[in-house]
Structure formats: structure tokens, C-alpha cells
Design a protein that fits this description.
265 residues, alpha/beta, Glucose Oxidase, domain 1, 7-stranded mixed beta barrel, two-stranded antiparallel sheet, 6 helices, 12 strands, 22% helix, disordered N terminus
Length: 265
């Protein structure tokens, strides 16, 4: 029995070492994938409010020291943000219920910019994934997948980013930007057990979507999505570690997100 205990302990330690052999937090270069929240932050065209940053105090106090304090107001969904599963799937995780394991982990970047920049209504295909895997190897299960469409270069120009400079309900029919095909989303969940999906556009679904099927499929599987990501052009295809921590809003369907990616120096 003692021998079995020692053997099992050694195997556990060995597995722990193997799972972390490519991750050295002291040897990572961190890239911020987050846009600042300010007057330029982009929200869905029919959002009634945008980002408000109100000055409550800013100056020297009667006791002679400087003091500043501000209030903010923002919709859950806008700028670099997280979509929690409850956003499109009743009974699934709200923002504060998401486990940290769903928000951190190994990631890859799949570059679909050639097709996406040539077609504003492009939907990322299973073939895009398989072609990427030919060059980079099969995607491991429980990986965070980030798609680089190239549309990050347009942010925060509303017209170029959304496909229309209009706001309000009348802008919705004129939205043109790429997204993830629902068939691709289903395949990634079934065949690669993806942990989360993110991209550098306003939505996981392409601009002309009416049913937001990719949202429904991903969030129906209790997995989060990351939208309006910055600086994907600064990341390699593989060997990335992502930390995506949203504002912990109780009962939230989404939240402003600070997402960073660590890459080996």
C-alpha cells in the first residue's frame, strides 16, 4: 500500500510538471488586448447610453493635499467586454458565476484577415480552422481561441468598424462586419472543446445576423465570449496565455473586460 501511495504521488507531481512545462510566468511579455473606456468607446448602435465619466472631485482639499474621485456609467456590452452565457442562454452562468478556469488559460490566434478584409460579411469557417492546424498543429482541448479579422485597425472609427456611421435602430440593417459561422462554433465546441471565443469585431456573429446563432450555441454550452479585442496583430499564433477578467457584476449578462495575453520572450 505504501508503495502504491508513493507511486501515485510521483505520477501526480509528474503530471503537474508536464502541464506547466511551457508556462513560465516570469518569462512572459504581456500584451494588453483591451481598449480604454472613454468618450471614444464604441457601443452597439441602438444602445441608449454610452460611457460616462463624471468628475466628483478634482483638486486640492482644504487640508492641502490633492484628491480626485470620479463616477462612471456604462452599458454591460460595449468596448472590450465579456459576454456571459446568460446573455443568450437562460439559466446559464452570469458574470460573477463564471469560474476563473473559464477566463484564463492557453490560447491561440487564428488569422482570417485575408478573407475578412475582402468581405465585410465574412463568416469564419471550419476550413479556416483546419488550414490553420495544418501549419500550427491540432488545437488542444480547453483552449481559448482568438480570431484576428483585421478589423481592429478600424477601432474606434464607427463607420469603418461597424460598416455604418449611423446610430439608433435604423443602423442595425446596415451593419457589416465579419463573425464566426454557427457551424464553426458548433464544431469547435464538439471537436475541440473550446474554452472561450474572442475576436476583434463588435460581435461574435457577423453584422447581418438576425438570430445571433453563434452566441446561442456558445453560450448554450456555458462558455463566454470576448468582443472588441485590441492588439491581436501583436500576438503570435501559438504559445499564448490569456487572462480575461471582467468587472464582477452580480447577475450580469456581460461586463467591461480587462484582457491580457502573455507570450514567451
Amino acid at each position: 500500500m505504501r508503495y502504491l501511495f508513493i507511486l501515485s504521488t510521483l505520477l501526480f507531481v509528474s503530471c503537474q510538471k508536464d502541464s506547466n512545462k511551457n508556462l513560465n510566468l516570469n518569462n512572459l511579455n504581456w500584451i494588453d488586448l483591451t481598449y480604454s473606456f472613454d468618450s471614444t468607446t464604441l457601443y452597439w448602435p441602438n444602445n441608449k447610453t454610452t460611457f460616462v465619466h463624471h468628475t466628483d472631485a478634482d483638486g486640492v482639499t482644504p487640508l492641502g493635499y490633492y484628491y480626485s474621485s470620479y463616477s462612471i456609467c456604462t452599458p454591460e456590452h460595449g468596448g472590450t467586454h465579456l459576454d456571459a452565457p446568460i446573455h443568450f442562454a437562460k439559466g446559464k452562468y452570469t458574470v460573477e458565476e463564471l469560474p476563473l478556469t473559464s477566463l484564463t488559460g492557453n490560447a491561440v490566434v487564428i488569422d482570417v484577415s485575408k478573407n475578412a478584409l475582402a468581405n465585410r460579411d465574412y463568416r469564419i469557417t471550419i476550413e479556416d480552422i483546419k488550414n490553420w492546424e495544418i501549419e500550427n498543429g491540432k488545437i488542444d482541448n480547453n483552449t481559448i481561441i482568438l480570431f484576428k479579422t483585421g478589423y481592429g485597425k478600424y477601432y474606434p472609427n464607427r463607420g469603418d468598424y461597424f460598416g455604418t456611421p449611423k446610430t439608433g435602430i435604423e443602423a442595425i440593417p446596415e451593419l457589416h462586419f465579419p463573425g464566426i459561422d454557427p457551424k464553426t462554433t458548433s464544431w469547435l465546441i464538439k471537436e475541440r472543446e473550446v474554452k472561450a471565443l474572442g475576436l476583434d469585431t463588435p460581435s461574435l456573429d457577423y453584422g447581418q445576423s438576425k438570430d445571433f446563432k453563434t452566441h446561442q450555441i456558445l453560450m448554450g454550452s456555458n462558455k463566454p465570449g470576448f468582443e472588441n479585442l485590441a492588439n491581436l496583430d501583436k500576438l503570435p499564433a501559438t504559445k499564448i496565455f490569456v487572462v480575461a477578467l471582467p468587472m464582477k457584476i452580480g447577475g450580469g449578462s456581460g461586463a467591461p473586460l480587462r484582457i491580457i495575453a502573455g507570450i514567451s520572450n
